[in-house]
Amino acid sequence: MAGQSGVNRLLVVGSSVTEGHPETIGGANVLMGKLLDHLNTRPDIDFLFVKANRYPSALRSLLSVLFKAWSSRSQWDLVFVNVSQRGLVLLFPLLAIMSALLGKKWAMRAFGADALEVLENTPWKGLLKWCVKRSVLVGMETHALVQDFSGYTQQTYWIPNVRDEVAGAFSVKKTYQKRFVFMAHVKRSKGIFDALRAFELLGAEYTFDFYGPIAEEACRKLETHPSYMGVLDPSEVPEVLTQYDGLVLPTFYEGEGYPGIVIEAYQTGLFCVSTQWRSLPEIVEEGQSGFLLPVGDPEAIAHCIRSLDEEQFERMRNFIQGYRKKFDSQSVHRGLVDRLIKA
Question: Is-contact 340 137, C-beta < 8 A?
Fold first, then answer.
């Protein structure tokens, strides 16, 4: 149980995957589910979860969260707000103000890599900074953001994107089969067209499949592409990943933090071919867990993959077996929740 100076009644707010709605399958929403899975294993915690994307209308969802938080105010001591860009601007400060009025504590975790830009460009920047400074915990996904936000509060911590370790992923020796996969929202900024061009250059010797919801109209034509395998339920992802050797994600998405699919790939033993973009250099160890290439360069992707051989493949798998532990869901969330209840 939490000590007298701590709390063990949490109101947890965040967006999560909605069954039957593939558009809600994304890294932040899947990660929210991992936190809830951990909380359900903690008999020392009483928590209430409020889903921030319950309705298609953002306004209706916001009002629903505020109503639920207020109506359940006698059941929680600390609200933990898990937000992406829009939530950081509006949902987080509103819940922080409510908590202050009620004499309760608040904490925040921001997904992605754009939290500082959001804060600095918000019309109510002063209010948002006040909310951040008085948070008992501020969780940031990247080391760069931890450094940036440490100027506002010393209660800033690194909370990386995480996934569950996959049992047996390394129990059997795996040989290099030249099989590659893309898993993400299928849109231009995630690099799908660069990936497809790279494998056109590589030819039939290599296998390339891609999965994910079609996220923009410009990619609608890819629904009939022979390499498009559709949308997976998050629970299906690890098993499907084990059928491949490497993940290809040549992203240049503006809000990119630590892509969840990169972490998922590590947990299943795959290396990653990605880009020198945003925070990816923090999690892709060059030549050990993967490769970082220039943005918008399918020729570089093809050249990199063509140069791989069995020896390097085995060497990277050996490295990833240990490296993946820093992104293990249970250990990271245990540390996070322990900090919250001591706040």
Answer: yes
- The reported pLDDT for the residue numbered 208 is 98
Q: Are 266 and 323 in contact (CB under 8 A)?
A: yes
What's the CA gap between 201 and 207, in Å, rounded?
Answer: 12
Give the 3-state secondary structure of residue 183. Answer: strand
pTM: 0.87
| CA gap 334, 328 in Å, rounded | 10
**Averaged pLDDT score across all residues of the chain:** 94
* pLDDT tier for residue 19 given thresholds of 50, 70 and 90: confident
**Residue 109, beta-bridge partner list:** 82, 139
**Measured between alpha carbons, how far apart are the two ends of the chain, in Å?**
13
Lowest mean pLDDT among 22-31, 84-93, 137-146, 178-187: 22-31
Question: Cα separations (Å) of 3 from 103, 110, 341?
Answer: 19, 27, 8
- Give the closest residue to 238 by CA, choosing from 267, 207, 273: 267
Of 100, 109, 118, the C-alpha closest to 137 is 109
Q: What is the DSSP letter of 119?
A: H
Residue 22 has a pLDDT of 76
CA distance 277 to 206: 25
Quickly name the fold that domain 9-162+328-342 has.
Answer: Rossmann fold (3.40.50)
Q: What is the pLDDT of residue 3?
A: 38
Which amino acid, 317? R
**Which residues lie below 8 Å from residue 257, measured CB to CB, with a gap of 6+?**
111, 112, 113, 141, 142, 161, 278, 279
- pLDDT of 2 above 70: no
Task: Domain ranges for the chain, please list them.
Answer: 9-162+328-342, 179-327
Task: Please give the CATH topology (third level) of the domain spanning 179-327.
Answer: Rossmann fold (3.40.50)
Count CB neighbours of 150 within 10 A: 14
Tell the residue number behind the tokens 């965040």, with chain if given. Answer: 14
9-162+328-342 and 179-327: identical CATH topology: yes
Q: Which region among 48-52, 64-68, 111-115, 155-159 has the lowest average model confidence (pLDDT)?
A: 111-115
